[in-house]
Amino acid sequence: MFNLTRFRFSNKVQPQKIKSMVSDHKPISGTVEDILTYVTKYSGSPSDLIIHRFTTGNGLVMAAVYLESLADISLLGSQVIEPVNKFIREKSETLTAATVELLISASVIDLFTDFNDALDGLLTGQALLILPNEDKIFGVSIPGYPRRPIEESITEKNVRGNREGFTEDIKDNLSLIRRWIKDPNLRVESKIIGERTKTKVLILYLFDVANPDTVAEVNKRLEKISIDGIIDSGYISEMITDHRLTFFPLVQETERPDKVAASILEGRIAILVDKSPFTLIVPATSNEFYQTPEDFYFNYWIGSFLRVIRFIGTAMAVTLPALYTALISVNPEFLPSFLIQVIASGRTQVPFPAVIEVFFTLLVFEIFREASVRLPANINLIMGIGGGIVLGQAAINSGLIAGTTIMVVIFTSLASFSTANPSKEQAWRLARYFLFFASGAFGILGLSIAGLLVLAHMAGLKSFGVSYLAPWGPPLPVDIVDGFGRLPWWARNRRPPTYRPQQEDRLGNTDKEDE
User: For the whole model, what pTM was predicted?
Assistant: First the structure.
């Protein structure tokens, strides 16, 4: 009898078919050589396909098929090939499925009854064991593909807190989250998306906390994705977003497992994508993109101060170029006379209008920023800082650009990094140009109208049924208090109602000893 605790009968949820070389369903049948011919033909007879035949005096008794680029050859030898060869040499018994089950020491074995499922297993790193007169194929999980070690997140640096970051291996990422949440109510649902890549996607949430309607909506949107391949979680983020034409991110992305664990505890849903270090979190509000895990690791006074700094920095990064252009080109009457004299003295030799001057300077800094990302690390610092200083000084000395314009653009570029999320920062970069051109044409009035249009657009956005401007609009007093600032933990006895959790209470009656 088979030990069913070690076996998984394959019943995979297949993605919607776009184009397939094999039929939708083909039961396993034929001799071992027939099956080998089929596997070789429909896998494209790749150069890394290895076939190991086990023979006795009675002929072929078993075959092992695997891709040496994906399978761990040493484990295959110790767990499959050596035990089978030893049995064949020492025993005169017939090699049956029950015998193979006893010989193999692998912890996870799939039993495939369909050729398509068996080919999928082969292409994910499994070794296929084929026996004569059997209507199923053994799939032994022995992955041996290279992995990147767990390191600190590059895009989300932290001063205090956990240093672990997600990798490209979905199993490692899942284990990082499970180390945080040791609760049997943590649900992990699996899906396969992508006809050709067959990318594994995991949905994580707390069964007794997350809103069931939101969970159902996440599953519904993922199941509707029909595409040939998923290379990164950004593909899925774009396909499941509520408003596909907006440039504001409606799905939160992170490389930090502590942020994902905290979001799941709040009643939100995490989506892990294989071969991507970025995990998706839904629903997402604009307020979430300005918060970092460090806000909760420091004292609540310090955490609140850091949040205020981020809000101020983002506001200045978005509006400062537009405000500067409006005041010096359209509405100089709003400036004090001494400030007008200072700015005018620096622009006496500048041959271009303020709008063209500021736009050109912003464009040059955008090019510098994009180039610095692509430069090798050993020359990035020299070229970025040295080149910027030299060019900026040369532009001022030549009279092409005013010193105040350089100062405004540099401060804008630095302030843009105060946004805690890269996706949100990229969105504000686009909004900055919309506000800039409106202020250049109509001054303060144009800046005000453009700002209201941006806010109106954001107010109309939703993320899985949650308002993007929550808790500000519609106002939720409980969450607003924890918006600009950070409430102390002894006052955060309820989960954010923004995400409509099933269980709102998260903290008991904690005594305030200082009172």
Answer: 0.85
